[in-house]
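Dissemination and training. As part of the outreach component of the grant, students in the summer workshop were shown how a complex can be specified as a set of sequence lines and then modelled as a single object. The example used during the hands-on session is reproduced here so that future cohorts can follow it. Participants entered these lines:
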Amino acid sequence: MSRIVQKYGGSSVADAESIKRVARKIARAKQRGDAVTVVISAMGDTTDELMDLAYQVSPQPQTRELDMLLTTGERQSAALLAMALNDLGVKARSYTGSQAGVITTERHGDARIVTITPGRIEKSLAQGNVTIVAGFQGVSQDTKDVTTLGRGASDTTAIALAAVLGAKYCEIYTDVDGVFTADPRIVPTAKRIPEITYEEMMEMAAAGTKVLHLRAVEYARREGIAVHVRSSFSDNPGTWVKGHADIAKGNQMEEAMITGIASDASEAKITVVGVPDEVGRAARTFDVMAAAEINIDMIVQNVSAVSTGRTDISFTLPMSDGQRAVQALNAVKDEIGFEELLYDDQIGKVSVIGIGMRTHPGVTAAFFDALAANDINIDMISTSEIRISVIVEAPKLATAVQAAHTTFGLDTNGEAVVYAGTGR
Amino acid sequence: MSRIVQKYGGSSVADAESIKRVARKIARAKQRGDAVTVVISAMGDTTDELMDLAYQVSPQPQTRELDMLLTTGERQSAALLAMALNDLGVKARSYTGSQAGVITTERHGDARIVTITPGRIEKSLAQGNVTIVAGFQGVSQDTKDVTTLGRGASDTTAIALAAVLGAKYCEIYTDVDGVFTADPRIVPTAKRIPEITYEEMMEMAAAGTKVLHLRAVEYARREGIAVHVRSSFSDNPGTWVKGHADIAKGNQMEEAMITGIASDASEAKITVVGVPDEVGRAARTFDVMAAAEINIDMIVQNVSAVSTGRTDISFTLPMSDGQRAVQALNAVKDEIGFEELLYDDQIGKVSVIGIGMRTHPGVTAAFFDALAANDINIDMISTSEIRISVIVEAPKLATAVQAAHTTFGLDTNGEAVVYAGTGR
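and obtained this result:
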């Protein structure tokens, strides 16, 4: 009997019927003889609805109380799933993050898992229960207050549990059939990727592939946990995320130059115009962003114009943080001494990702040629060892992704792409 | 600075606006310099909605999981109230029953408070916080599972906390202006009772007065906690529940024969016809009810007819348990050997309550005369030292209550009755 951890996202447990469907899926795994631990998200839009309620009560809800409020969502779905399983004759018990021993830092709304003390989980598994843990939450090491783990947190909870329980693998059930060579909504000929390395998955996630959250992949890589991403709406094979050595020869990505094309329409660009080209001025700009807890993605600093002694700094950030960023920068306009701010959220990011790049020269050239051939201007560029990302005009995003997908030979030969689910 | 405990029911925190209103009420108490601990119920119909959800998922939800599900309601309102208070500049922190140290028995759905270990509450009060505790819930002493305390439980939580914290008194905020000489919806001339003894309040509660739950009054009496029942929708004086010695002379109830008339339309009557008049047959009937965890109220056993050697047993029980009771009894029909079961839920209970009865003879006669004068037949009778209850036909209930209210001189002299609130 081997241990496995399964995680089901909110869209997989959106209502009573979905919860029963998920229960049947879990019951089948249990019948295969596995010892199953399940991490569950809140039902459908519950978290958003609770957030709305909080803002009806308070213009700026305290983070401690917001965590107390939001964590009830996963507790509800966990309890309901346990009821549904028991009806199927499968013994099940639900646990809050705190009961499950998920110990975190104290930072409400974005806590990190410090350790997991799985005493009660181990006991529950020993009793033969399917053990259901409310995702996204834990308890603060020092204050013993309820905390939430921030975005992608239920995936991270599942992988952390898989590690501490010595699980054979971690299944992440979502509303898509796995990781594709491109977003099938943009590229209908995109192919499911049967196996992908942690490194490539991290680049895909960082570049906008929403299927699995970056932090969760990092955690899986560090702990060496094999992750199986698949749909809770089908029994299709999905995508395995593994260490390079564990990837089946036939699927090893050296054979292909490029693993996939990621796209992200959720970023905006800020250009700080006319920054005096003196030591520390640019740094100060990013201090301000850091203080506002805004994550910067790409950065370009133009060569300073000798005549003016001033330079422009452009960077991208999540569109949702755009207005806060502009306010924060304007607040220090005189201190930094820039001339003006330009804000543009009509941009899209296209990323070409593949370990194959290391050994194949000319990928950049081929990518840029494909964009040029489609009249697409490149606004910003950033690269890693196995990724090239460019910013283009938002209206050109889809064309750019399709062009790259074709150029690197990723289009299916008529193989139908299964894309179940409710969208994320 | 004196400590007080306040409890707000679900109808007092039905939506965001109500929560803010309650927050302002608490802020005023805090400004008077009191150290305030608040026990809060779930918002409006939240508990019913969660219950519906559970039954959508499972025909018979496990009680452990049901408790995990239902307790989220109070956690949500507690967190929201804390947010609202902090917005008013009043430091506040919310705690789950478990965090507040409410240790209970293991019986899910109807656990009893074993003890309260108020370490975190004391710490929070010492920090000057309004300390908000999710009502209706605790944690099981042995299993450490989340439990719920059953009906009237938030009142009990509040009174238990008042006792352990050494509070000056416990305020129960509800949607009515206090305890009245009769249900003002039935008797418009009913008067608010300014002060009432624990014993009378217990009889009123047992006899159907919903304002305060019997178990909570028992607890207050045992701990000697003064309870102030009042409306969260007004600043009206409400009703004090106290020990007899603490009742102001002017309000002492010896001066009046009768304190109030209680009515209850929620009971049904079962008559077991033709029970062999042998030792243990009747007892067996009530064993069956006990096994089904159904509370019996009034019992009448007719004199056995010598000719047949059989007798009839009638008893009243909550209407909501009626069908279960009938099924349970029919299952043992042959064993008990009765002839048939009669079920009647068209009944009402009228109770006359007052410590004055002890010293005033003739109360029973006056009561029955009033009923006779209104053509109301008495079906069953039960009495205690300070209460007389009768069962009448449901359609006659209101008339019976009004008649008793007038007979015992409880009608107001034109004084308007304030009856705010949303109904319970």
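Residues 16-31 of chain B form the longest helix (16 residues). Students were then asked to discuss how this feature might be tested experimentally.
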